Amino acid sequence: MKVVSSRFPISRPRRLRSSSSIRSLVQENTFSISDLIWPIFVCEGTKKKEEIKSMPDVYRMSIDVALEEINKYHLLGLNAVALFPCVSESDKSADCKNAWYHDNLANKSTRVIKKEFPELLVMLDVALDPYNIHGHDGLVKNGRVLNDETLECLVRQALSHAEAGADILGPSDMMDGRIGRIRQGLEEQNHQETIILSYSAKYASSFYGGFRDAVGSGKVLQGNKKTYQLDFSNSNEALRMVHRDLTEGADMVMVKPGLPYLDICQRIKDNFNIPVFAYQVSGEFSMLQNAIRKNLIPRELAILETIFAFKRAGCSGILTYFAPMIADYLITQEST
Ligand code: PBG
């Protein structure tokens, strides 16, 4: 980096901060609502909107209710949603077969949404946890999470999601070899256009509790996910996972959680120069939301500050439960 040599008082950096016009002229990063992917929890039934206790202001919605919400925010410029099904107990099993049932909750919701909003991007996770009586992302046998047997299931699940019209698949399971097998399956079944956003750097984290409450996988989960998700003391390992996933056919990669892992986002961006996404996960959301509710930090500005942190770290986009709140805020800003 070249160093500018002039000294005070020739150099007065405050000149470029002295008014909002000059500040916006020299602003280094920008952000718009179309940089966000909104994660939505869908449930069976109609007219359902149940608050998730550990995630204030986030709801499990039946598809009719979700459609109305999506319509509202799509009009405000939101272009992408990630659907997470809250699978009923009776559809969970050890073999996880509901994951690839053509008319399961994720697939049927996707069909309805794509029919109504063809140009809205719909992303679906590829992982077995919402369908698994063991709460793990892979098949479990004798207490172990099986890798190769799980791959067969993931390919079937991915194909059923592509068939339903999902634009983006997000393998979030962290099994070895999944991206290659899913990409091969998609090619063979003529789904060449399906995008894979790999959760390449997904850490074994304490910040997923709200999500597990929301989809009901937390209460059944035995043990932890450390045999497949990354160890939070590592960062070179994340780069190796990104490299592997790109060579296996991922189009874009994700880092998860978000704010505690900005260094990982930046290293990936610097090393690979590909689209990187961060997932501001349930635990991060809950921390901020609780502080906001107690008036410890200001609502919109604090949220936006976190979003710009991701942009500075090189992220193309962010998955965040704050997406609708940010959209509401930006629209009030435009009209003032
Ligand atoms: C499951 C999955 C998880 C999240 C997204 N997909 C949880 C987990 O791995 O246990 C977490 C998202 C969040 O906490 O908001 N494969």
What can you tell me about this protein's structure?
It is a single chain. The protein is an alpha/beta fold. The protein has one domain: TIM Barrel (Alpha-Beta Barrel). 38% of the residues lie in helices and 18% in strands. It contains 11 helices and 12 strands. The strands form 2 sheets. Strands 1-4-5-8-9-10-11-12 form an 8-stranded parallel β-barrel, surrounded by 8 helices. A two-stranded antiparallel ribbon has the order 6-7. α4 packs across α5 (178-188). The radius of gyration is 21 Å and the shape is globular. The mean pLDDT is 96. Bound molecules: ligand PBG. The site of ligand PBG has 11 residues, from α6.
Number of domains: 1
Shape: globular
CATH superfamily: Aldolase class I
What's the CATH class, please? Alpha Beta
Summarize this structure briefly.
The protein is α/β, with parallel strands linked by helices.
Notable characteristics:
two-stranded antiparallel ribbon; 38% helix; 336 residues; eight-stranded parallel beta barrel; alpha/beta; 11 helices; TIM Barrel
Q: Topology, please?
A:
Elements: H1 20-25, E1 36-43, E2 49-52, E3 55-62, H2 63-75, E4 80-85, H3 105-116, E5 121-126, E6 140-141, E7 144-145, H4 148-164, E8 168-171, H5 178-188, E9 195-202, H6 209-215, H7 236-248, E10 252-256, H8 262-272, E11 276-280, H9 282-293, H10 299-312, E12 317-320, H11 323-334
Parallel strand pairs: 1-3, 1-4, 1-12, 4-5, 5-8, 8-9, 9-10, 10-11, 11-12
Antiparallel strand pairs: 2-3, 6-7
